[in-house]
Amino acid sequence: MRQLAIYGKGGIGKSTVSANLAASFAESGLKTWYIGCDPKSDGSMTLLKGKQIPTFLEQMKDGEETNTVEGFAGIKCVETGGPLAGVGCAGRGIIVAVQELSKHHFQQDDDILIYDVPGDVVCGGFAAPVREKYANEVYIVTSGEYLALYAANNIARGMANLNVTLGGIICNSRDISDEKHIVEEFARRIGTHLIGFIPRDGVVRDCENHGMTVIEGAPDHKQAEAYRQLGRNILENTNLTIPSPMDPEDIRTMLREMQR
Amino acid sequence: MNDILHPRPNPIIAAMYTLRDLDADVVLMHGPAGCGFMASRRLEEAGVHVMTTGMRESDLIFGAEEKLVRILRDIDDRFNPGLIGVVGTCASMIIGENLDGAIKKADVQATVLPIDIHGCSGPNTTGAIAVLDAAASYGLITQHERDRQKMLLEKATLIEKERGLTSKSYLKPHPGTTKLSAAQAIVGTLRKGGKISVVLNAKKETAYGFADIMRAVEHARSVVGGEVHYIGNLDDKVGLPRIRRYASNILRDLDDANVIIESITGGLDEYAVSGKKAAEALKQCDADLRIIAGLPHTVPDLSKNDVLVTDQARQIRNYLEKGFTIAVGELSTHADVMSTHTVLRSELGETIRQVADGGLA
Fold first, then answer.
1. Which of A126, B289, B349, B355 could form a Cys-Cys staple with B189, CB 3.0–4.6 A?
2. Is residue A91 within 8 angstroms of chain B, CB to CB?
3. Is A14 designated active site?
């Protein structure tokens, strides 16, 4: 069983990439899980025709037996859920939900688990999915912009501290010039590689408006092929390394150099 | 919603005691100083070294993994322990400390068990089960022993909920009915040539205190006559080595006092199931007066005029509220027994002796 965790700056497109990736795995016949770890609980909606599902932690809180919901192509969808903004402890919620999932839900014959983890790794709880017995393959989503790279570098630092292996960097394009090369160079400098490039395309938003991934809503579109290609790259990926983060000032220098 | 308001042990405390049962040399609390402090004092009397990582505000903010690693190495160097248990606390577990990861990083000589629980992890027995799980996965106990104890602990939790401390929303401590009235009822029954059954159904080390009642009743019988039957969970062939040791020490001391246990109902960790066997033995005896010492509520089908003896003041209140008339408190038992290897004199035992010897009217 492969266990992937997708990290990246808030708003960079982790959930979109994760959901399309899950859909591409599932349509090729793999038994796939999508585990959304954001208290907002919105990452799985494009796998569920736009519906929100009862969160895992709400079910546990009410003493119910925890259930998972099947989405597109049989993907098992979970939203861990968590407290409302400003109260409680979302990090603790992730720890408890991940423990419960591995104890009672994952099966031996599951092929691939995708943890979609919120923005920055702000506390121990947000690192729970990458503890030893859970995900051992982290992918960081970024664009070629400074702040996204800065966040990606920070996440890489966290992974290095935790001794977690990075599978690569996914570039979710914001249509800036020379973006692929920028992200490729960044990946090289932190000791990993670019595992996939997702172009920016309006079809993503169109499909999301219909509560669908591109794989489901526009399966023949070239954008769907981009997600499938990313999926194949990940499945074939054997290049796992503990990253060596950059000095943040060096990121700016790198960007300035590449501007010329 | 049935909120239970009175203070009671949590999984942290149960984990600490279970590590003691495994003969751990060091229990390291990963949390603030003071967490589990009262339990620590008692466990130190039992020979366990309890230590703390003494987490501070800055550890909550920045994490305390390095501190845990450093302290584990320090403990390993200075005390050369064979077995260490690192017990989680609310502070460390809420911030997501990775006990297992830190232990691997510390890479010390001692066997170190990560006990990933905290105060909010559920009933206190959750902590005991977590220790058993860790011990089984490190090969310190067999899977069979782990399963046996887990079943017993779950049963104990259920009994507490049905008939014990967690069956009531609030229980105010009660000092107990007088020892003199209980002793007079006991000696009076024997003097008339009556029949008494004494049941010991006690939890682990507390039996060192409650077993004295058997010695005292046997003394009274030898002085004033009558007939006594002894029933106890003193099987010294089940459970962890430490628990078996308790049972064989107690059997030795009872033997010295001419107390012969007619019915052994189980081991000292089997109080949650041995109570049922004790009830059957009690039925067989059909005595005029029955004494149940230890955790009387774990013995089903008690009658309202049985003499109940226990060590917790809230449990006494619970018994009296349930309509029992004689509930005697041996309130210092747990504190007294922690370091002992012999049966200790109990207050009720001493009162029975005094009454039997004619020292009281």
1. B289
2. yes
3. yes
Instruction: For chain B, give every domain's residue range.
Output: 11-166, 179-356
> What is the architecture of the domain spanning A2-259?
3-Layer(aba) Sandwich (3.40)
- Do the chains contact at A124 and B100, CB–CB below 8 Å? no
Which CATH number among 3.50.40.10, 3.40.50.1110, 3.20.20.70, 3.40.50.1980 corresponds to the domain B11-166?
A: 3.40.50.1980
pLDDT of residue A121 exceeding 70, the answer is no
CB B89 within 8 A of CB B36: yes
Residue A218's SS3 state is coil
pTM, two decimals, is 0.87
Give the residue from B61, B66, B67, B94 with the most A CB atoms within 10 Å of its CB, the best one to mutate: B94
Whether A31 sits among the annotated catalytic residues: the reply is no
A51 is catalytic: no
Task: State the alpha helices, DSSP H only, in A164-221.
Answer: 179-189, 202-209, 214-217
Q: Check B96 against A162: CB less than 8 A apart.
A: no
Size of interface A-B (CB pairs under 8 A): 30
Determine the topology of domain B179-356 in CATH.
Rossmann fold (3.40.50)
Span A194-238, pLDDT tens digits? 999 999 999 999 999 999 999 999 999 999 999 999 999 999 999
* pLDDT tens, residue by residue, B46-59: 999 999 999 999 99
In angstroms, the Cα distances linking B224 to A69, B89, B149, B179, B207 are 74, 54, 42, 19, 26
| pLDDT per residue as tens digits for the range B236-267 | 999 999 999 999 999 999 999 999 999 999 99
For residue A124, which residues of chain B lie inside 8 Å, CB to CB?
Answer: 63, 95-98
The CB density around residue B43, as the number of other CB atoms within 10 Å, is: 21
Calculate what percentage of chain A has a pLDDT beyond 90.
75
